[in-house]
Design brief:
heterodimer; A: about 120 residues; alpha/beta; B: about 140 residues; alpha+beta
Chain lengths: ~120, ~140
Amino acid sequence: MQIKEKSHGEIILLVLKGDLLSEPDQKKLMEKVRDLAGAGTKHVIIDMSSVHFINSCGLGSLVCALTTLRKAGGDLRLAGIGSTIKNLFVITQLERVFDFYPTTEKAVAGYLKIQKKGPK
Amino acid sequence: MNKIFKRNIGSLDEIFDFIAEFLTAYRINDQVSFQLKLIVEELFTNTIKYQPSSKKDISIGLEKADNRIIIRIVDSDVEPFDITRTAGVDVNKPLGEKRAGGLGIHLVKYLVDNIDYTYKDRQSTITLTKILEQKDV
């Protein structure tokens, strides 16, 4: 799996490409997320539109990423997930803990709205 | 169809090709393809991870009978691990208490309609049945 990082101001977009299923994939993603959390990044979007297969290890790594960012006062959004993979989030009830957006543009727009309003 | 795979993660690509060959032969759709890959991958990965002392190859069988797919995974020289008796992961736990362990078994149990487990002479056989809907073929 490859990870490409892009930024939209204070929002960081991680574009995943390939299958998300092995422990090395999990480590790679977690290293990236820990670095972002350590650098004070609050808003992260993971673009899943080029991920076509994911297993329990992959789901677990997304949960770890979300937990790491929330503990650091940040947040994670998932964008572009196909219906087959989304179904796994439903089966595992993880759809209740993640925020899903159909596209990265919509996820970015959602964050920009929050930034405009300011913190609660 | 039946095939023997080396006991390492590197076999996954070969396993996915084997599944694709089976699905093409029976013209089964992409949704089932994803689920079948996930079921086999989770169980194969599990056994490699939790039965590290065995050096034996793993046999995977795929069969279509009427509206059912039967998946059979035979693992030799292993300790018993009865998937039907494992406690399911509590998917309702709050985020901070969630852990990855058990999620794979939860997914497998959800995606199939029946699971049989037998253990004899240090050989585990897991037989899973998935019933196909009309739209799947």
